[in-house]
Design goal:
This protein is of the alpha/beta class. The protein contains twelve helices and 17 strands. Strands 3, 4, 5, 10, 11, 12, 13, 14 and 15 form a nine-stranded mixed beta sheet that branches. Strands 1, 2, 6, 7, 8, 9, 16 and 17 form an eight-stranded mixed beta sheet that branches. Helix 1 packs parallel to helix 7 and helix 4 crosses helix 7. The radius of gyration is 21 Å and the shape is globular.
Length: 372
């Protein structure tokens, strides 16, 4: 069994697999160490929304990074399929962000100057496109670029493509400790032996807090539990993703709809609660009147890693020494996975990365905040 690599990635969700894929494209020797199965955690729990415009409302470096990542999916769609034979199920029919009163409409219209592709659709136009929505709405912001993918299939496509290019993906091997050594740069201790690598990337989502603390980084990152449900209905015909009040309805084809998600801070349990699912049902019932006839398929929950300012950590440990973090993606892990993988690979192999991205996602920004 091989145990020596150029790069070891801790975490086999969509972020870790994207990093592995982009490093493998650079002919870097890389291993992914995952404590459970590939895509087992927050990746599997996500709905797959690519909501660069629906989730972000400030035209800053974070927004530009998100937009680039969103567009990158159109390249990866065929690229990953050719290597893995797994479809990421990219749906590009856009999103409606709904308004139910004039104040909500006014708030949504503020986004129009940010992007020339955004459109305001009044009630009649919205109902023409999506007739099963409630007629109580005032209108909606139409976001043609905010589609969705299948999170698990995308993670699997990254993983299989990385394997095809030479990466090793090791499942059910939690990493217990990371130590600097004399012989090799780092030794990663696991229950199945020790792995050695020159570079280490911590990319295991909410569980990255363990390594943040153990590697002398007192940074704020907390768990935000998200509960979801899926239903199936022959009565509801949705083409676009529907977004309202931080919740969404994502049409997955064949009458299946994914509805989410709650935001429960500092909850480390991964089981959905009656109250959480009920709150989603109560919020969605006025939006889709026929949802009361839908068949309930499943309920689930996942844990999102949230930083102090909601922006991820993508960068090197302040001490340098070939130790990196790619975590804290909060509600946007699926959206940001392509650019995170590309950026991390470029940092490791020494390719140029935009200065504004390095600064926006650096770990030192939070060290400075914590010390104030």
């Amino acid at each position: 069994m091989k145990t020596n690599y150029d790069v070891a990635i801790v975490g086999g969700g969509i972020i870790g697999q994207s990093i592995a894929y982009h490093l493998a494209k650079e002919n870097v020797s890389v291993v992914v160490l995952e404590g459970n199965a590939v895509g087992y955690g927050a990746t599997r729990a996500a709905a797959g929304m690519l909501g660069a415009n629906s989730e972000l409302d400030e035209d800053d470096a974070f927004y530009q990074f998100a937009k680039e990542s969103q567009r990158y999916y159109h390249t990866l769609n065929q690229e990953l399929f050719d290597l893995s034979q797994v479809s990421i199920q990219l749906f590009d029919r856009g999103m409606y962000k709904l308004a139910y009163n004039e104040e909500e409409a006014k708030m949504l219209k503020r986004a129009l100057p940010m992007n020339s592709t955004l459109e305001w659709h009044p009630r009649e136009q919205v109902l023409k496109h999506e007739p099963t929505l409630s007629s109580d709405l005032v209108g909606a912001l139409y976001i043609p670029e905010d589609g969705h993918v299948s999170p698990f299939d995308t993670c699997l496509a990254f993983s299989k493509s990385a394997r095809f290019l030479g990466a090793d993906i090791v499942e059910n091997v939690p990493v217990h400790s990371i130590e600097k050594t004399d012989e090799k740069d780092y030794a990663l201790q696991t229950a199945k032996g020790t792995y050695y690598s020159k570079h280490v990337v911590i990319a295991n989502g909410v569980w990255s807090h363990y390594f943040l603390q153990n590697l002398d980084l007192q940074l704020g990152m907390k768990s935000v539990k998200g509960e979801c449900l899926s239903v199936k209905s022959d009565k509801i015909k949705l083409e676009k993703t529907i977004f309202y009040d931080h919740c969404y309805i994502v049409p997955k084809g064949n009458g299946k709809l994914v509805i989410g998600a709650t935001m429960v801070e500092d909850d480390w349990t991964t089981e959905p609660t009656f109250g959480g699912i009920q709150s989603l049902m109560n919020k969605m019932a006025p939006i889709l009147p026929d949802i009361k006839y839908a068949t309930l398929l499943d309920t689930w929950a996942g844990l999102r890693p949230q930083t102090i300012d909601g922006k991820p950590y993508i960068g090197q440990h302040p001490s340098g020494e070939h130790l990196y973090f790619a975590t804290g993606h909060y509600r946007n892990g699926i959206l940001l996975a392509p650019k995170t993988g590309e950026m991390m690979a470029n940092l490791i192999v020494g390719k140029q990365v935009k200065k504004e991205y390095v600064e926006a996602f650096s770990l030192t920004r939070h060290i400075q905040q914590v010390m104030r």
